[in-house]
Amino acid sequence: MRRGTWATHPLLTAPDRPEVVRANDLEQIGVPRRTISRRCAAGGPWQLLLPGIVLLSTGAPTDEHRVRAALLHSRQDAMLTGTWALHRHGLERVPRQEKIHVLIPANRGVANAGFAHVERTHRLPRPHLRGGLPVAPVPRAVIDAARRLTNEDEIQAMMAEAVQRRFCTTDMLTRELDQAGRTGTALLRKALTPLVAGARSVAEADAYRLWQRSGLPPGQWNVSIFDAKGNYIATSDFWCDEVAFAWEIDSYRHHTSLEDHRATVARNARYAAAGIVVLQTLPSRLRTEPDQVLAELHAAFQAAQGRPQPEILLKRAA
Asked: Partners of 128 in the beta sheet?
């Protein structure tokens, strides 16, 4: 290509032209290396996001620019994983991490650079396309994200959302965690344990641990309860079938509207009509007043134990 004609090349002029490109691709269409350097200098019309990766505009780069730059830097067969992949899958309870985590085949020699964290792996999964970009499947992305977090609540909330919104199952997370090995995964396994038992939130995980401390008989989490005629009563956060006792972890957040309040009152009325003893606990008290909650659990359990047992049918919530 003759000198100067690169300025009209489709890579730079087409309506659907990419905003982030490799410097090598610019050289291929005839842009001299010194011109690229000059245009990426302070005050120029372009900017260098990562070594050899150019943003063809000024202004602060967006997250989309940075994601595409990280993938271009990581080259062929790279894919997003961790929190950046989970955001693209549509998960919401995901902490922000500045480093963009990218997986590449183990035999590739690409190093970390700037905001791009490049991980070589012998277990490269088949990517999903989200927004036109390759991302790791949800179970792998969750475990990869969790391995770089230190807050158990954040790990648990992320796992719980993935399961509750049916992006994956606890079995999928368990398999992925087992394949990741034992090193550095103790916190992840601790966070996953209540979810495997049926808990579906950080609050329910706290309740799970408190019930484990209580010495009371085991029960089930998130089960749908019906009376003897098959009429739906409620989907209980926790259910102890031995004495027909329900434990609801009811937060203020779920009672901010009149409709939410009405639904809770109606649920409790159905419990009462069916002869079920129910205890309601605020999530915050599981941590601030655990001993008092334990005493309330024992008292409620004894009350349930001392009255005639109602006939109840159960169905595990999906």
From this structure: 135
Q: What is the Rg, in whole angstroms, of the alpha carbon atoms belonging to the chain?
A: 27
Q: What pTM was estimated for this model as a whole?
A: 0.88
User: pLDDT of the chain along its 318 residues, tens only?
Assistant: 455 689 889 999 899 889 999 999 999 999 999 999 999 999 999 999 999 999 999 999 999 999 999 999 999 999 999 999 999 999 999 999 999 999 999 999 899 999 999 999 999 999 999 999 999 999 999 999 999 999 999 999 999 999 999 999 999 999 999 998 878 899 999 999 999 999 999 999 999 999 999 999 999 999 999 998 999 999 999 999 999 999 999 875 554 567 888 899 999 999 999 999 999 999 999 999 999 999 999 999 999 999 999 999 887 655
Cα first-last separation, the chain: 61
Please report which helix (H) or strand (E) contains residue 54, including its range: strand 53-55
Burial class (CB in 10 A: 0-12, 13-18, 19+), 239: buried
Calculate the dihedral angle through the C-alpha atoms of 177, 183, 188, 192, rounding to the nearest 10 degrees.
Answer: 50
Torsion angle of the four alpha carbons 270, 271, 275, 280, in this order, in degrees rounded to the nearest 10:
-150
H-helix segments, the chain: 10-13, 23-28, 33-39, 63-74, 82-89, 138-146, 152-164, 170-180, 186-197, 202-214, 258-273, 285-288, 290-305
Q: Which residues contact 310 (CB under 8 A, 6 or more apart)?
A: 227, 228, 244, 274, 275, 276
Token pair listed for 194: 């209540």
Q: Which residues pair with 239 in a beta bridge?
A: 220, 246
